[in-house]
Design brief:
The protein is 24% helix and 26% strand. It is an alpha/beta fold. The protein has a six-stranded parallel β-sheet. The protein has a four-stranded mixed β-sheet with strand order 4-20-19-18, with no helix packed on it. The protein has a three-stranded mixed β-sheet with strand order 2-1-3. Strand 19 (343-345) and strand 20 (351-356) form a beta hairpin. The chain is globular, with a radius of gyration of 24 Å. It starts with a helix and ends in a 9-residue tail after the last strand.
């Protein structure tokens, strides 16, 4: 973080640099042919700030040779499966991270997002660093968290937690694990927390690394597999809590919990059902292209075989997607700005003057 601060300070001291804060980009719908007005209609930003100045892209373009759009990805990718939007205790990892970091949109006025005193088993979909951050916070002793700058409301809720088991589920295998060795090392060091993994899948992954020393990021992958093989400092048999990495599983549906015998039809209508299980399809790994033998690049393909695993809480951590700025050509399905090699284009493929993106590899950014 300090390195980031130093870089920002270095840039800000450059005499060519100017910063305009508290400004949001709005859009403008041009007047229609039958309109009596010669001016367009201002369209606010999709996440407007009541205090920010609204400026249109069209008003900026005449004053700059290039405008680079680097406004990030502020929405979650959906699982697009039944039960995702209708059941309680289904959250995005982003909203949970915002909650325990004191984000203004997820402040104590909105907490608790969940009642951790009633949750023992958590399923996290996704195996990146954010997924492991969430798992670590749920399993770490609350007394150690008090030494951090977590908000008081988050500490109070975490102190009530009854979470005993966290499953971190991914669609591919150990060799394609998305998290870093640093995150894995911190998870393995959690006091009183055991770790579980399929030993056969781990053995096959380690053999693949040994047989393919020239594969992409072979050294990093080998270190990660070594950490997984060593496991947690706390043996699983004597652990108070546990976490596991589950592989080759893609969620196909979120299932409701079984209603209690005392539940009435009115109860069901007033209070939405909570998630009670996840249905997974078992995957197999295949090469993305014929002849591509890099084990690290293998992709998941469903086998049609399905299993159901019970849970009390589901966290989605499968990446983010951008939102379209008003008047900006945008592919809603992919969640990216329409572009050709990083240069913004219209829906007809025409180049938008002066509008650029920082990377041509937008689908993965």
């Amino acid at each position: 973080m300090q390195n980031c601060e130093h870089k920002f300070e270095e840039t800000a001291r450059d005499p060519r640099f100017r910063f305009f804060g508290n400004v949001q980009i709005a859009g403008e719908i041009p007047p229609s042919s039958d309109s009596t007005s010669s001016t367009g209609t201002l369209v606010p930003n999709l996440s407007p700030s009541p205090l920010a100045a609204q400026i249109t892209l069209s008003s900026l373009q005449p004053h700059y040779d290039a405008i680079i759009l680097t406004y990030g990805a502020s929405l979650d990718r959906d699982l697009s499966i039944p039960g995702e939007s209708t059941l309680q205790n289904v959250l995005s990892a982003r909203s949970f991270v915002n909650w325990y970091n004191g984000h203004p949109y997820h402040s104590s006025l909105l907490s608790p997002l969940i009642d951790l005193s009633k949750i023992e088993h958590v399923t996290i979909i996704g195996q990146g660093n954010v997924a492991l951050d969430v798992a670590r916070l749920l399993l770490k002793p609350v007394d150690e968290l008090r030494e951090t700058d977590l908000p008081e409301y988050a500490l109070a809720e975490l102190a009530r937690s009854r979470v005993k088991c966290v499953e971190v589920v991914g669609r591919r295998g150990p060799l394609q694990l998305a998290c870093t060795t640093k995150e894995l090392r911190e998870m393995m060091a959690l006091p009183g927390v055991g770790f579980e993994i399929d030993p056969e899948l781990l053995r096959v992954a380690q053999e693949d690394v040994e047989k393919n020393p020239g594969m992409a990021q072979a050294r990093m992958r080998k270190r990660a597999l070594g950490l997984l093989h060593s496991g947690s400092k706390t043996p699983l048999a004597g652990a108070d809590k546990s976490w596991s990495l589950e592989f080759l599983k893609s969620p196909t549906a979120l299932l409701p919990s079984t209603p209690t015998s005392s539940s009435s039809i009115l109860d069901e209508l007033i209070s939405p059902r909570q998630v009670g299980a996840v249905e997974f399809e078992i995957n197999e790994l295949v090469a993305p292209r014929l002849g591509d033998m890099d084990p690290g690049a293998l992709q998941a393909r469903g086998t049609g075989r399905r299993i159901v695993q019970e849970t009390d809480l589901v966290m989605k951590s499968v990446g983010y997607r951008s939102i379209g700025l008003p008047s900006l050509p945008f592919d809603k399905k992919k969640g990216i700005v329409l572009n050709d090699g990083g240069r913004v284009v219209s829906e007809k493929g025409e180049t938008a003057r002066s509008l650029l993106l920082p990377s041509a590899n937008l689908a993965n950014s």
